[in-house]
Amino acid sequence: MQPVIEAAQTVLSFSHFAFLMVGVVVGLIVAVLPGLGGTAGLALVLPFVFGMDQSAALAVMVGLLAITATGDTFPSVLMGIPGSSASQATVLDGFPMAKQGKAAMALSAAFGASMIGGVFGALVLTVAMFAAQPLIRMIGFGEQLLLVVLALTMVSMLSGRSVLKGLSAAGLGLLIGSIGSAPGTGELRFTFSTNYLLDGVPLVVFSLGIFAIPEIVDLLRSRSSISATALGEGWRDGIVAVRRNMGLVLRCSGLGCVIGALPGLGGSVVDWLAYGHAVQTVKDEPRFGEGDVRGVIAPESANNAVRGGELIPTLFFGIPGSGSMALLLGGFVLIGLQPGLPMITRDLDVTYTIIWSLAVANVAGAFLCIGLAPQISKLTRVPYSNIGPVILAIIVFTAYQATESWGDVIGVLLLGCFGILMKRFEWPRPALVIGFVLSHGLEGNFYRTAQVYGLDFLTRTQSLVIVAAILASLVLGLKAVQVGRRAKANGDFAPPRRLPQIAFTAGLLVLVGYVLFEMQGAKYLTYLFPVSVAAITGLLLIVSLARQIVLDTSDPILSDIEQESDAASSDRPGILRYLGWFLFLMATVLMLGYTIGAALFLVVFISAEVGWRPGRALTLAGGTVLALTGLAYAFALSYPEGWLPRMIDAPWWLQ
Fold it and tell me: Model pTM?
């Protein structure tokens, strides 16, 4: 009873609620920008939670994750562009409703369904906590190893159209996660003789490069405003529609919880499953695809309930249920929390705090979205080019907080280029980040299992059950390929040409070959894990490369790749152009310090790309830098050091 009382006191405290609302507001801002979602948003705030009070840090992270699945409805309904992978199905009926003047009805129905789904997910998580304790006590080192393997095989489902790409991306994530000192021997691996990589690639740098940079570059390339759709009337009608379809809301919420609890699935598929369930079960004059409000209610209730389901493997087994949960797991480490048995024993009050914070954030977030809808609908008319450079400046500031080294900023740029290529050639980035986060745990469990059990753990009943689940996940993944082949690619980029696709896969194979070459002469416990992963990943890449080379264009996937429309991208500036702007930002900050360098970048970018007058651009730059200065002062954060401020010994706010 004591943990319950302590959790209630924490959740009801003013400071916790205030930080929860900070997370909700930041998450709402991120959610309004299409394509970012909770993963990129959490990557942006992760450096700021380091050193914060544990309760405050949890409140910010949970608040952000709770609202992103609600706030991403704005771009889906108002512009017809999915706010994140979890709101793709919402577009099918939400955008037609907006074009019919029913945007307010669609939004209110979505927010009402999201609130119920989020609270439902929190209730399911509460029940799961009691059922999880005996299960966790049955899990030994061997079963933990198999659970991680299960999670890695299930990420193949994230790829949609290619199990090979999903598993290969997970393997690449494991290899990147093995950079630094080997846990078994302390011997260094793949550091390129740099001190920066002695402890591996920081999670914040990795996530910003892989997720945030590709999305921001693509937003800048679009060169369009977010929406020109008016809200219209019908706020009450949307709430009434949710009440009339409560059975559908609860069924889809339950579906979301189940899918969320399966590592690797999450929001990337649940909205489509919920939408399909609605299409199959609704008999009362369905008009799906033409503006049926039930086509909004079903996916929105499911994608909010997913959060509660995703937290089950994340909290109780230390296995992230999605890419955003992988970053949340990293956040737990930063604030001193250990997922697993401690979450239902020693830290039970913290677990209750997380669950109740999730429920409160969903309720508060839904009301906040309704209250701010008129203002947010105006913000969606702002061109991306006005927002993108500000976010780039924030990314440089955020990345530097990882180790306070310029290696952080350079690492974001290099990983950003890699993330852009992965997105361009349709390789699943969530699978990569899940592999990266699980790398250390998998290697440690591998060695512990070998020393304690050998292969005897495979004879235990619980191990056999998990092995069966691994085989089932691979079978389901192969079936997903067949479904994906019949489905048209749905992405922000035009389908990639075949030869660049082949070249990219070949480049990945070269990287895997480098791992095998570099590990020659290393100690047994140093090379065993990376060499094993590299060998398996290399075989998967060889098969994938062979398919791309040998299969003819009658293959649905390859025929889609060959049919690239140059006209579709002829009016979009090249990717290198905006990477050049990012380099310009880095150069000005390196020479002049962050304050002056970031302001100069914003003025030049806005003047050149948007056409604003210098005075107006200077106002935006000054406001951005002033806000970041206040943030740095409040949280005792550091600016990237510049050459000139260091030479003249300038005060910290001019560095």
Answer: 0.68
